[in-house]
């Protein structure tokens, strides 16, 4: 498996070879991330979960490309902000394990994405 930092380095090399760094401000990268998420969403918009599952093979290549675009902009944004995702993602996962221990939430305690603890 290739590390996030190695992938980020390849993305930076691609960007720098084209002299695009001047466009890659945090604001522009965050906006580009939103655009790419929108393009991903377009593939499944107006469909039920079952409809999406039934057509996944048909849209898999497009979905892979859009998810990759989202990851590229996310990695670029993290790089520009000096955030090491290889350090912060495991830390966030551990924090979530502590915040949401197994069995701590049930359908009865979750309302509109909020728990009674919030």
The CA-CA distance between the termini, in Å, is 37 Å
User: Beta fraction of the residues?
Assistant: under 5%
Sheet with most strands: strand arrangement: 1-2
- Which percent bin holds the helix content? 55-70%
Q: Could you say which overall geometry the principal axes of the C-alpha atoms support? A: globular
Note poorly predicted spans. Answer: none
Count of strand segments: 2
**Backbone CA Rg:** 18 Å
- The mean pLDDT is 92
Q: What does this molecule look like?
A:
This protein is mainly alpha-helical and 118 residues long. The chain is built from four helices and two strands. The chain has helices at 4-17, 26-42, 49-80, 85-99, and strands at 110-111, 114-115. The protein has a two-stranded antiparallel sheet with strand order 1-2. A hairpin with a 2-residue loop joins β1 and β2. α1 packs across α3. The longest helix has 32 residues, at 49-80. The chain is globular. The mean pLDDT is 92.
List strands and helices in order, with pairings.
Blueprint: H1 4-17, H2 26-42, H3 49-80, H4 85-99, E1 110-111, E2 114-115
Antiparallel strand pairs: 1-2
Please supply descriptive tags for the structure shown above.
mainly alpha
Can you give me a brief rundown of this structure?
With 118 residues, this protein is mostly helical. The chain contains four helices and two strands, in the order ααααββ.
């Amino acid at each position: 498996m290739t590390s996030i930092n190695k992938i980020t380095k390849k993305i930076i090399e691609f960007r720098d070879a084209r002299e695009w760094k001047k466009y890659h401000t945090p604001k522009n990268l965050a906006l580009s991330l939103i655009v790419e998420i929108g393009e991903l969403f377009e593939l499944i918009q107006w469909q039920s979960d079952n409809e999406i599952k039934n057509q996944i093979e048909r849209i898999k290549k497009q979905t892979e490309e859009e998810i990759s675009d989202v990851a590229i902009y996310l990695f670029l944004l993290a790089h520009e902000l000096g955030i090491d995702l290889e350090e912060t993602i495991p830390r966030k996962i551990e924090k979530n394990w502590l915040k949401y221990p197994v069995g701590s939430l049930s359908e009865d305690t979750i309302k509109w994405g909020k728990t009674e603890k919030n």
